[in-house]
Amino acid sequence: MSSFIGHSLAAISTYYVEKPPTSRNTRYWLGWLIIVASAPDVDHIIPALHLTYQYQDVRISHSIVLSLVLPIGTILLLTLLGCKGRSRIIRSQQVILAGLSHLVLDLLTGVNKLPLLWPFSRETFKLPFGLLPSAGQVNLFNYFLYRNLLIEIGVIAPLVYTAYLISPGKKINHATKFRIGALFLISICFMFWASSLSR
Fold it and tell me: In whole angstroms, what is the distance from residue 93 CA to residue 107 CA?
């Protein structure tokens, strides 16, 4: 699985891809996107969300259905609060992307099997490769925790900054294009490092 930092960066990038027309309550909205993007890991706090089928641990919070519970609830609440038009469309897209980003990042570690189709199927899915490292065991003296965080940030942070550079209202000149190319190169180098880790 990816770390909280990785999921937070993914949530921030969903915001910058297309900002809502109004900038009111930006901090609260960004904070909520981060919560939504990290929510599937609630199964670490609520063990009941781990189900065992034929000796296989299934983390049902990492299914598409359960990953969309908070986003759909958020869209309904936005509607009830009178958010409409372009603002509701953009916020709806952002919160759905934030919710699903968790599954994408966890899949890209190539470590854990995810029950993406639960409750319709018990089948689990895992990529045969990894472009992200798995989050290291939380221990201040664990070298792998810091190494994996460095790699994860090296992969994701350049992509988040790229999303910021191409966000609506930003001018894309030659210098910006050069920065974007350099950012992609940095991200790819860290992906290559991540792919070389043992799994």
Answer: 21
